[in-house]
Design a protein that fits this description.
- The complex is a heterodimer of chains A (about 110) and B (about 110).
- With about 110 residues, chain A is mainly beta.
- Chain A is built from no helices and 11 strands.
- In chain A, strands 2, 4, 5, 6, 9, 10 and 11 form a 7-stranded mixed sheet that branches. A 4-stranded antiparallel sheet of chain A has the order 1-3-8-7, with no helix packed on it.
- In chain A, a hairpin with a 7-residue loop joins strand 9 and strand 10.
- With about 110 residues, chain B is mainly beta.
- Chain B is about 0% helix and about 60% strand.
- In chain B, a hairpin with a 4-residue loop joins strand 7 and strand 8.
- The termini of chain B are far apart.
- The relative contact order of chain B is 0.36.
- The chains are: A mainly beta (about 110), B mainly beta (about 110).
- Chains A and B meet through strand 4, strand 5, strand 9 and strand 10 of A and strand 4, strand 5, strand 9 and strand 10 of B.
């Protein structure tokens, strides 16, 4: 499968725990994006990378959230001290260059109890 | 924050009928992209239309873009039960690279 992959697909955690999600983009894509989607809403942008550089962060990305793309390939999104309001689908997308299609992965569904 | 609005929010039609969904947005854009999402799944890219284009076709899909009215429409012809899903428009705003999504249209195609 040469599409965007995300792991895990589901994560259930208790409030206060830390979680980490991984995204593997399409191999030749230099841009990688993270979005969050809650039930009944469209995805909302969190942050994006061009190669290993994090170029934009949304104000939704509180200081409990951190994202990395250390070698310009896969990316991780970590949420520290999770809260119930963090429960959502976390989506990763990748694109090649500027102004082209963004292709999404299947998402990681986070449930914070 | 959500950029635009899809209209209608929900649409129910019979198999074989055409489905039209509209999207409005507020800013200047580089392009507009349409996606499909089945319940609880990821987003599937349908079509991208650039700001200097007015119409694009892909199979049973037809997308139009009117930048003067800041609106777009997605037409699905000869709908099938498998087209049942939520459809989202997303804009790549001028000066940004992230997409801004609307809240989607939930399409139900009755067999």
């Amino acid at each position: 499968d040469t599409g965007v992959s995300q792991n895990p697909r589901h994560k259930i955690t208790k409030r206060g725990q830390n979680v980490t999600f991984r995204c593997d983009p399409i191999s030749e894509h230099n841009r990688l994006y993270w979005y969050r989607q809650t039930l009944g809403q469209g995805p909302e942008f969190l942050t994006y990378f061009q190669n290993e550089a994090q170029l934009e962060k949304s104000r939704l990305l509180s200081d409990r959230f951190s994202a990395e793309r250390p070698k310009g390939s896969f990316s991780t999104l970590e949420i520290q001290r999770t809260e119930q309001g963090d429960s959502a689908m976390y989506l990763c997308a990748s694109s090649l260059g500027i102004g082209n299609e963004q292709f999404f992965g299947p998402g990681t569904r986070l449930t914070v109890l | 924050s959500q950029q635009g609005e899809e209209d209608p929010q929900a649409l129910s039609i019979q198999e074989g009928e055409n489905a039209t969904m509209n999207c409005s947005y507020k800013t200047s854009i580089n392009n507009l992209q349409w996606y499909r999402q089945n319940s609880g799944r990821g987003l599937v890219h349908l079509i991208l239309i650039r700001s200097n284009e007015r119409e694009k076709h892909s199979g049973r899909l037809r997308v139009t873009l009117d930048t003067s009215k800041k609106s777009s429409s997605l037409l699905i012809t000869a709908s099938r039960a498998a087209d049942t899903a939520s459809y989202f428009c997303a804009t790549e705003d001028t000066g940004r690279r992230a997409l801004t999504f609307g809240s989607g249209t939930r399409l139900q195609v009755q067999p």
